Amino acid sequence: MLEVYWGALSFGVIFAIITIFFGDIIGSMFDGVFDSFSPESWSEPVILVGGVTIFGGTGVILESYTDCHADIIVILSLLAAVALSGVVYFIYVRPMKGAENSTIFFIKELIGKQGEVIIPIPAAGYGEVLIKMVGGNTSQIAACSERLDIPAGALVVVRTVRDGVLYVSRKEENAEEQV
After folding, report:
1. What is the distance between the alpha carbons of residues 68 and 42, in angstroms, rounded to a whole number?
2. pTM for this structure?
């Protein structure tokens, strides 16, 4: 039985090394192929292979350093694998799934936001506005809603969005901020 434990442990270590060095290449080669086989997060490769590795490592340790019966070692190794895989799932995999962020935003979300003109906006034309967002900055095509010239560096507020263009008005220095 010791050979089975060593095999499971070796498989896990080799899988980890291959994943570290070639994970992106292998992931892009098989992108989406295994999605239908693992709809649940508990069946993620990191959980399954981690469980096999823990099973093997626990088995090797118990087999080598205790006088327990083989059946008890298998049960304890399986329990350790399930318990530690559960810990990995709840402490690492599940929070990481929820932490996936995106910098995608809807252009309508910019209405009411404050920005800075980076390319001057002529009265009858278009310029560009830089708006600071939570995930970074975005620069958008802009026009003046009052048909006035707005120089570079001026602070503006987005009033509306039409056809992908932000219509802005110059922010009054004395006015209170609108949110």
Report:
1. 30
2. 0.52
